[in-house]
Amino acid sequence: MYEKEAENIEIPQHHNNGNVLVKEAAMDEDAEFCEEQGDHHAGEHINNSPQHHNVSKAGNIEGESDHEREHIASLPQHQTMEIGKLNTASLGLFGRDEELSVLRFSFARMMETKHGSIIDSKLASKSFTTSGSHKELFFIQGISGVGKSSLAKSIHKAVDELENGLYVEGKFDLMISNEPYSGVAKAFGSICQQLLSSKKEAMAAVGRMIANELHHEMEILLPLIPELKTIVDRYSSLTRQPTPSSNHVSIEDGQERWKYAFRLLSRVLNAAYSPMVLVLDDLHWADASSLQVIDYLVSDLQNTNQLMIIGCYRSDKVFGAGALLNAIACLEEKQDKYSFHITEIELQSCREDTVNEMLMAMMSVEDEKETEELASICYRYTSGNPFFVLQFMLMLENESLLTYDNELQKWMWCSYRIQRQIRYTSGVVDLLQDRMKKMPEDVQLLLQYAACLGTSFTLPTIDIIWKDHQIEYGTETTDTALMLKIMQDEALIEECGKNTFRWVHDRIQEAAMSLTGNVAASASFKCKVGKALLSALDEEQLEDDLFDVVDLINRGNVATRPELAALNLRAAVKARSLSALESASKYVEFGAAMLPRDHWTFHRKLTLDLYTLGAETEIALGNNRAAAAYCNAVFQRDDCSAMEKMPFRMAVIRKISGGDGELKKKALKMCLDTLRELGYKFSWGRVLLPLQAMLTLNSTLKAMKKRMGTKTLDASLGEMTDPRQLAIVQLLERIGYLSYTLELIFTSALSFCHIVDMTLKHGKNFLSPFGVANLGILSGIIMKEKFVTVVACSEEALSILKSVPPLKEGQTILSTYGFCLCWKKDLSVCIKALELGYQSSMRAGDVEPAMWLLGMYQILPRLVSYMEEHYQYEASLIMKMLWQGLLNLTTGTGRSTHLEGSIYSAREPLRSSGSVQGMAHLIVGELYFSSSYELAAERSIKFGDTFEKRCPAYFLGMQETFHRGVALYVMARKTKKRKYQARASRVRKIIKQWVKDGNPNIEHYDLLLDAEHAALKVTGYDSEHDGKGPKGYDAIDKLYQKAIESANRLGHLQHSAVCNERYGDFLLQIGWDKSGWARHLSKAAGLYEEWGAVGKVKELKLKLQSI
Fold first, then answer.
1. Contacts (Cβ under 8 Å, ≥6 apart) of 235
2. pTM score, two decimals?
3. What is the enclosing helix (H) or strand (E) of 313?
């Protein structure tokens, strides 16, 4: 029973959170008062206006303005107003003209079409442009119920009307805020469902493309987006490929794997659906991993299709230093660099006149004065919040304070009675709870259970919980389906799929959850639900719902039970495999807290597994104090073995390996110390290291050749399974990498020898191919081993690669095709292999070799941004150098022989390895070669084979050596000086050996240098001679012609130009065949122009004009 209020009610003018509930039952005096006033105050207390029923297909009512019709028509879910029912379809967009204009502007800018609507002068002052990016990021913030979702949905119709447009939604949830990628997974899952339900033949082609293009990534994506399995089963023509186990992939590499997989999936989908609009609702509940996905998608330079992401979040749930606001700030800094736009708007509550428009639309009233007083009451109690306005009106209807008269065909109310019988509450949740508390007790209880399951739930899941409730209390209760029907009728939930339901609004879910009582009671209730699911679900179901179950248990569990600690470890491992590090960190923290006091004695493995994952996760997140706590808990125990400490040390080593030189040295020392702890002797000492390296290289190569006597190395090897041996091999690989970057070549060589020795003695492992390939390279550098041996090592490495996990596939391809086989195989074959290596490295999350591989076969300005995004300083620096070098060659700007310009300045300090300095040397040499043969020859004498020493075996060394030879021969012929001739002859001899070794890419090198060498003996042409040209001319002519034909056949545009230039210059020098030298120099100028060397073209044209 409601307490009776005093008769005089004073309505406050405005309350930001002024929410209301009915105060008491209808009072006779109120009814009498209304009846007395009705005939004389029509429209003042009771609405007496006629009712209009003509409704359009979109739910529009005749008498509405064109603008209102446009608002309602833009909604994706259309409904027809029923007589005697309040029309609620259009509430969300009333008073949102300005915000709709901004949203449409962003959409039009993405589509690059002319935007016709007028924008408010305040908006017009902002720097909006319609050119450039095809990606838009649109954030809508505001308090709960203000209409954020309705505004986002307003674009649905415009997208659907486009032939290949796609609009999908994903929603995050407070109840499962630790579940990684929940909203993103729902959005991508929805895309898959739409694809599977489509009957268009074009969609079948998209399905086949997804299945075939992503078959390598399926094992990564399936746990997150299970709908992909149906697509694969239906459309794939390929056997699913194994992917690297997350147990062998570092956390940092795992993050890159996920970035690559998400981007590849979005590229494939966005290529089929363009524009693609993703709406992510309740972004304030999103986990950090989901916020990273937004970054991955909008900053993907390789996706050039139209993509718009709309994020909605509650402004009262985010704070100054929160993860969401930090993520938005980071995205704002990136938008220019990665070519996307960000727009942010904040929705406010509606004005009183807008509330009046809402009421008129809800009750189909045309005269605004008839609803003014009711609107005023509604506004004072709801502060103009659209969702609260709706709940307020539904409350009035439920309490018979607002009724529909079928005879008069109009809505009737008494303003005086409404004011007398309502009271203030603290929020809309209380208003909703009041409605819920009037439902049957079983329905109220089911509402609480359903609220624990998140924004959506299924009938089978709620049945499990309800049956557990029946068993616990031993009572017969109402049928679940019947109670869900009651909840639907009360507009609390709605069906969103077969046996699947969702809450109409998140505040309704919050109200249902609050029925449990205080915080402690609510937590206990959730824990009960989680344990019920844990006991009822089978293993496959539990794996699908693991995060939900664990989150529910963690919210209310206070017991220290090892089985629950193990459950949290399972969730943490799954989160880690999804690269959701923040979620993994929380699960480890919960799991560690649930360990009993005797956990080191009776649950040692569980403890070590939790602490190891905790240390790795916190190190990756940069939480050094938390990481140190996990590490010290193990390091300070005397009973922990070196193998038990090994994962903790490796986590630290991996982290600091990416630092500067001093950190790399520290990481190298840690590796060597850990090897000693494991009882493995690495070297004889610093003094004897060079000798040991050469002796070990020699003995290891002999052992390999002996093993390869009758069959391939791969066929003769077993599999390494011993944990200690695998740990040693991983440490050796780190030593090899660190020592190479620190230019400790003998230490690096020794480490790879040890890897190969371990492989020969104990079997192959995922690092064996990488070790064998690098053994070949280093044997050629240090031992000057024959080229055939180096190539044999590369081929054996690729053979072993087929039978081990592909964790180091990219690095192995880089070592083989990038440094060895490019000297043996056609470059087109090598480029294809390098591209496959890049893709493999990205799948494994091994970014550093991926960037080097990418730079080898594709040089574009955007690669600099791509490499900087992956924090690859050295690779991006080299790309900048190459870019600047190409600009100097192709634009003729800046000093032609200086690596200087807007992209890169040689005056910048090179705080990098010898590789970067070697590349700088190479690029400057190319500038000299294209500018002045004389300067290039002098530079060759001064620096010699500096590039080969700094970047041994690198494929660009072929071209660098050839260009040195050409410049030296030019000056040898011009000056007749021995210093040029001797060095030119040495270069020619080197290239002849490469040809003899079987290099198919340098035939024109050999031919041109032979021609240049033969031309040294020709002094000139005597016109009184027999008219057949100088002595030996025919042989030289054939060599030049063959060199030109070879360069053309191999597609080497620059070298075809060089060959023509040198032939024309030879003919000009000897004074023979004037039409020939002019023809070849003109041909060279044309080829240089096609290649883009502007400075060289100017030089040749001036030369032709001056002769």
1. 204, 207, 208, 210, 211, 212
2. 0.70
3. strand 307-314
